[in-house]
Design brief:
The structure is a homotetramer of 356-residue chains.
Chain A (H helix, E strand, L loop, with lengths): L8 E3 L4 H10 L9 E3 L9 H4 L20 H6 L4 E4 L6 H10 L3 E4 L15 H4 L15 E3 L3 H17 L1 E9 L12 H4 L10 H12 L2 E3 L2 E3 L5 E4 L9 E9 L5 H9 L17 E3 L8 H4 L13 E9 L2 E8 L7 H13 L9
Parallel strand pairs in A: 1-2, 1-3, 3-4, 4-5, 6-9, 11-12
Antiparallel strand pairs in A: 6-10, 7-8, 10-13, 12-13
Helix pairs in contact in A: 6-8, 6-9
Amino acid sequence: MSDDRLGCAVVGAGGYIGQHFARLLADHPRFAPPLLVAGERSGGKRLADVWQLAEAPPAGLAEERLLRLGPAALARRGVPLVFSALPSGTAGPLERELVRRGVSVFSNAADHRAAPGAPLLVPEVNADHLALARGGRGRGLLVTNPNCSAAGLVVALAPVLGALRPASIHVSTYQALSGAGYPGVPSLAITDNVVPFIRDEEEKVARESSILLGARAGPQVRALRTPIVAHCVRVGTREGHLEAVTVHARRRPSGDALRRAWTTFDPLRALSLATAPHPPVVVRQEPDRPQPLRDRWAGTPARARGMAVTVGRIRWTPPYLRFFALSHNAVRGGAGGSVLNAELALEAGRLPRRPS
Amino acid sequence: MSDDRLGCAVVGAGGYIGQHFARLLADHPRFAPPLLVAGERSGGKRLADVWQLAEAPPAGLAEERLLRLGPAALARRGVPLVFSALPSGTAGPLERELVRRGVSVFSNAADHRAAPGAPLLVPEVNADHLALARGGRGRGLLVTNPNCSAAGLVVALAPVLGALRPASIHVSTYQALSGAGYPGVPSLAITDNVVPFIRDEEEKVARESSILLGARAGPQVRALRTPIVAHCVRVGTREGHLEAVTVHARRRPSGDALRRAWTTFDPLRALSLATAPHPPVVVRQEPDRPQPLRDRWAGTPARARGMAVTVGRIRWTPPYLRFFALSHNAVRGGAGGSVLNAELALEAGRLPRRPS
Amino acid sequence: MSDDRLGCAVVGAGGYIGQHFARLLADHPRFAPPLLVAGERSGGKRLADVWQLAEAPPAGLAEERLLRLGPAALARRGVPLVFSALPSGTAGPLERELVRRGVSVFSNAADHRAAPGAPLLVPEVNADHLALARGGRGRGLLVTNPNCSAAGLVVALAPVLGALRPASIHVSTYQALSGAGYPGVPSLAITDNVVPFIRDEEEKVARESSILLGARAGPQVRALRTPIVAHCVRVGTREGHLEAVTVHARRRPSGDALRRAWTTFDPLRALSLATAPHPPVVVRQEPDRPQPLRDRWAGTPARARGMAVTVGRIRWTPPYLRFFALSHNAVRGGAGGSVLNAELALEAGRLPRRPS
Amino acid sequence: MSDDRLGCAVVGAGGYIGQHFARLLADHPRFAPPLLVAGERSGGKRLADVWQLAEAPPAGLAEERLLRLGPAALARRGVPLVFSALPSGTAGPLERELVRRGVSVFSNAADHRAAPGAPLLVPEVNADHLALARGGRGRGLLVTNPNCSAAGLVVALAPVLGALRPASIHVSTYQALSGAGYPGVPSLAITDNVVPFIRDEEEKVARESSILLGARAGPQVRALRTPIVAHCVRVGTREGHLEAVTVHARRRPSGDALRRAWTTFDPLRALSLATAPHPPVVVRQEPDRPQPLRDRWAGTPARARGMAVTVGRIRWTPPYLRFFALSHNAVRGGAGGSVLNAELALEAGRLPRRPS
């Protein structure tokens, strides 16, 4: 094709996050419409046939068939870039093989998060960790986005951490159904109910947030040492993770200073990354916001819908700062996070045009 | 044991209907607490570990392990009576083998509904069809209860059919999540949604209702010939199927006569069947009833909770009679239906104390 | 202003339908952004402060204050066109006074539906009834759109009625929460529940559909005489009324003919009405569609989102045609319906630029 | 009457908490079936006509009419005991007048919580505070139960506070719809949503819990000084408030010691209070409990259903103890709490048989 967009593929395209990848990449300015790759369950079907999102499938891809293609075939076809929406466990070996074959992988799976040479990345928070990614000389990059709850949390915290120097951070989540994928949570388990358990989630939130908020130290990350104490709970909303956050602060900045820290935060403003929201944090003044139903799609410009983190109900009663943060689990905390990571890598000159 | 209750087992005890069987049989006056039998997924676990109902598991059975027992083992243990909550497809061969080994089977599965020698039975409606059941001389009985939507429909229609002599019957359902078992309907499929499709359901409602409302003719049933035209829809309620019914009537009885037909209907009043509700049809006068939340557990005495069918919003504008009917899909339309069938068979002297 | 769009106002702008009017009119090509008028409860507040829809308020109107303006003040300001989202009862006298003062009114309220000189209108179905609207010589037009359930029903039926010549039409509804406005249905009334009662709804569906599908006869409408037998039920969805429809047909067209009747139906294609969907009926082939969650916003072009009626699960077993129809209750069945009516009147030269 | 049960009345009997009072008092061993008193909205109607709970109204009271009776009339009728389910604001003056007329009041309203002479009471936690209640010599007692979230929290914390000596207590709530009464939360506000705001709730949880967990000091209470930092959120469940609790501990008892503290806790065991659950804290071992749907009705014996607090998912990673607590907001946190308070007062000889 004559356009100079980078070719790419989505593996795990039949699942909930995979479909968000397809939606985001169907008409991306820098990446070409993706090959859609799936396994036994969805392979061979049209995207429209497996579609689970409430909004209609993207016109350009709806009729595409999901392909059953392994890493070798993808490399052979010259695909330089793969977005991985595979379930954890399945993702690991396949992603490693892709990387060995020179294909760069941006993954939503947990398998390689913060593995050596595979940074955990949220561009607004730790763009400098991209440098930790190994790659080149026949090897693709491997970059991961964090757990869906950690993603929103770190964007909300990053602007104010320095001013607060926390002694501890407490977070309780109100996580949407789509966080469990499809079919995911049985309706009988959640109708008229909430479930105070999501396997491994509290550990991921604590560990991954600490790494994202940590400092690069040579080839490694020195994780934040502040305890992050989490309760993770599933509620009956479709999309959008709400988090109740309390920061036990050591310092006492003014309320104005805190608010300004949030509203002026925009570390990516100088870059032109298509999926980056400006501002990344939307601060709401209403007494009852953020709400999943109303704020899940926050983010401007239009391409960044669902990428902003909404912060509200800020209550600063030193030493405790309380607020709520809301982010779209499948966009900011999933497919959108990885697309933004790839945009950053492309901008940084780290993404070759063909398998290296 | 010294008590003279009939021994029994529940096959498919790990599923939603199986658990309702366990609940109903844990302290039944005529049947002993059941052996709980399950397959690979649940076998070996305690009932409490697989329990899915909102109410707590019955004290006497909660700690019982689900056994992996085949038909031969059940017959060898001398179990004369099996309640089948197996999924359709699996149920067929296993139920046939039990019957061949002299064990009587009362089944909620679709496989043998109205098969030769295996009547489809709702005691208030067609108790006389029990005579169609083959059995004896080394062969167990095989009796089925109908589809969960048909069960409520026929109880609601039986009292008034004669007076109306319908030209056609129209029914639209509002079916609860538990009708699909567990895990059943994914929460993402039904939250803020209704789904106008349940596989084969409309056909079952029409066919099974016609048989239940039909007349015995020698060794067969002459099905009702009135067209039953159904729409079947899943909504996001936990339990209780609501049905909007319109009868296009050929006759024009008075509204009082119709109401009296419903309120005086109690064909089982002379028998003492433990699970039979008296009255079987509860007629409500409020403008906005029946409702799944409030009426699903209708039925007195206490043991018959969930067995009554609630009828309300009766609008008789000849030639169209409109009303709503509500019944508990997993009790009247599932486990309770089969237990009542077995009580009828026992009362009728058709249930031997050991595999025959 | 230099643009030649027609000035307008929305009365009842603080309510759910009023907000949909604001959304549709914020950047309309033929109507200027509306004055927003409200009563005691919302008057004086900004639109953003009373906003109830899930999507954000339209940028151009969000900061506008809702005005407390009576009919006289509206006429004095020279507003030629008012969209009425007032509750029934309140609407009647106010709309009449507006009309007397020369202001044309397009109303969603029930008070004047099919009153003499005030046609009930769905442009795809009975555009010729517009001629019944009195107006001119100092008097504004008064045109109403139907009840939200009737609106979807008649669009779905219109294409096939001629081919079927029905003996009766049966409809059961699955109506969304927003049909009751805000605050509307208490959450405790509907969580894990459905409610088989909506006051006067069944009567409205029957009466209004009969008129819309009727024939103009001089200065009157000869209503369709086919019985329309309705059950109306509230379910727990946010937006989008689903309807299960059975037509008892006198004729037996082929299934292909029926399908073609729906897919080729587009009586407004020659006009350029901004809010008219093309096609007005979307026919879906999937076994489980239409669904409120997925199909409520059907309608192309973009300005006609929520205006198409989706038809699916067509089952033609003569003499019974069964199908499901879904339409957005607050758009096709509410604000969008009235906006389309006004577009038709403007196109027909019936809307003067100032109060007449 | 010949039975020696104490006469009583429920004011505010038409509301959600009032109906739980009616349910609990319909057949109480020490209190006679209550007079049901209501205001303009419900007065004159039968209890059955205003009934909002999912379970059926109590047989003995369903047909009773709600009376419009003021304090003077209640005193004149010789009613010695009133349970108040009035909304805050309305409750204050009316309760004061009752007390002045010698009628004892046990109130669920916020107006007098911890007012001088009107103790805030949860018998398992601070039974000794009953002594703070003024009363006698022509004056009735005035005793209040706390906010619905505080009630569950303090029962869950009381057993382990001594062993932990907390530096701070963090709680995030998942509060049920019924906490807002009826009509309460509009369905459009909460369907596919959670709302991170309940007016004054966080302040109440902190203040009332501190008082309940405080020590009596002469005629006053020395409130607990440990900060209680709360986030209060409404979710879409019908009944049962879930709370995520983190205790930042100063001491490090063993996990066994903590568990034992909970399971052996039963300070009321020696008293025979009809509504007291034994044990008051149910500790669950499953990884995903407590859940509102399954644990809201915890509590033995049968009369204490809904009075136990369920604790689960205990994670003790010093210095942070995390767990979830669940209690029925309208029983333990509402009507049941006040009934238990009255039982304690009766047992303590503080309740005279007639207005004093």
